[in-house]
Design goal:
Layout (H helix, E strand, L loop, with lengths): L1 E2 L17 E9 L2 E5 L5 E5 L3 H12 L2 E6 L10 E3 L2 E5 L4 H20 L10 H21 E10 L6 H8 L4 E5 L7 H4 L5 H8 L4 E4 L2 H15 L2 E3 L2 E4 L2 E7 L6 H9 L1 H13 L5 E8 L6 H14 L7 E8 L6 H21 L7 E4 L5 H10 L2 E4 L8 H9 L6 E5 L12 E3 L4 H13 L2 H17 L2 H13 L8
Parallel strand pairs: 2-5, 2-8, 5-7, 8-9, 9-10, 10-13, 14-15, 14-17, 15-16, 17-18, 18-19
Antiparallel strand pairs: 1-4, 3-4, 6-7, 11-12, 12-13
Helix pairs in contact: 1-16, 2-3, 3-4, 6-7, 9-12, 10-11, 10-14
Bound molecules: GDP-alpha-D-glucose.
GDP-alpha-D-glucose binds next to strand 14, helix 12 and helix 13.
Amino acid sequence: MTTEPGSASTSGAEPADGRGYDLVVLANRLPVDQATGPDGKRCWQRSPGGLVTALHPIMQSRAGAWAGWHGQPETAPAPFTHDGIHLHPIELSDDDVDAYYEGQSNATIWPLYHDAVEQPVFDRRWRQAYHSVNHRFAAAAARLAAPGALVWVHDYHLQLVPGMLRKLRPDLRIGFFLHIPFPPVELFCQLPMRDEIMRGLLGADLVGFQHPQATRNFTRLAAHLLGANHTGGVIKHEGGVTTAATFPISIDVAGQQQLAADPHVRARAGEIRRELGNPRTLVLGVDRLDYTKGIEHRLAAYGELLADGRLDPADTVMVQVAVPSRQRLDQYQALRERVERTVSHVNGRHAGIGRLCVHYLHQSYDRAELAALYLAADVMAVTPLRDGMNLVAKEYVATRTDGTGALVLSEFAGAAAELSQAWTVNPHNLEALKDALAEAAAAGADEQRRRMQPMRFHLRRHDVNRWASAFLGQLDRPARQMPA
Ligand code: GDG
């Protein structure tokens, strides 16, 4: 569904009774993107993605509001209603985008929280911007929330918000969910903002993580840095109580299965295989072009398998979708150059006329095309060096409704805790990665089904709706009912 920016239909963002909203979601981005409609006019379109899909029905039934950036460094549009959700754009200037978003969020916190697989950059100016943008979000939530409302804050961009909001509105129940890993004490302590971030997070009643290791890292840090007491995930600090718990995110499994059954998607999967010359083995990678995703490790392993003769370049093809991401940052530009060099190296050595070994696609695709790729792929290679969850792995499993397909999955993806029947691997161990890819490529349909079936069973019971209800259900519980 689309709505014109600034049109009359966008009014009514404030509740008529002026009481405020019972559920407020804060995330760096609003759940809509600006697009051009069929009539050539600018409009808003719901963003793709599980978070939006999961929260949509809950937001509608609870009279929810969502505050976030609309994606352009310019004056924020007036609040508007889209698809039954009240949207409140938060303004970011050019400098904010530079310092809060690209700097502190994506050049300091992102690499540090991912095991510092790239060197985090520290800059005082970015920290000031992070503080001031976080305050802008907290102030917006304080204005929007009804008395006693639930406020759900998302991700590493907004870690100071719970503490700031607690001061502004002590009546609220505040939840925070971190979509990325939470690092161990030794790494976190490098952060010049470490105390401020911990105090910010401890402003929440409930802090959720993707993986039990992240939850443990957080409770240990609270004790180590701030001397907080903790038992069984319940942290007591300066008169407040925060529960830390694990809520592994998931996908819209039913929606993914529907896509997998769509005749157009199935036909497209067949067409993709034909266009690739009907290979015996199609290996697929789908990632944002990010240094955490282990794309180089995967390409190196694949190249060596071709060179060793363990995979035959005449009947094996790899498709690597590398969705453009954070392109203004130096580390991402350097990664792109390295990946593109490796792709041409593998193709230069093993391709033939009219027969590539690696199809590298630095583009983004719609969900139907991705689903067709998942259906077409014999082996799905998900090899991050560190990943909060990795939804691509779950999407692949959910799409393979006939139980075929082989998932090679890094043990450093949060998803590995649930998808344990995959070929799990340490992507830093090149020989192990080569073995996992070769074994997955050689697996017969029985072996594939034996592994896929329990993973599919698990996902059907743990979809994104269950994730959202579990988090909000726990947040909604009065504090005295929290485990002591
Ligand atoms: C962060 C954490 C955590 C991919 N290409 C296209 C496209 N996608 C979709 C996939 C998938 C999503 O993007 C990627 O999610 P991931 O989980 O794999 O990775 P991050 O972007 O790094 O997400 C991660 C996640 O948050 C959720 O908590 O799992 O660990 O890093 O759904 O299908 N979507 C479209 N076009 C594409 O070309 N529309």
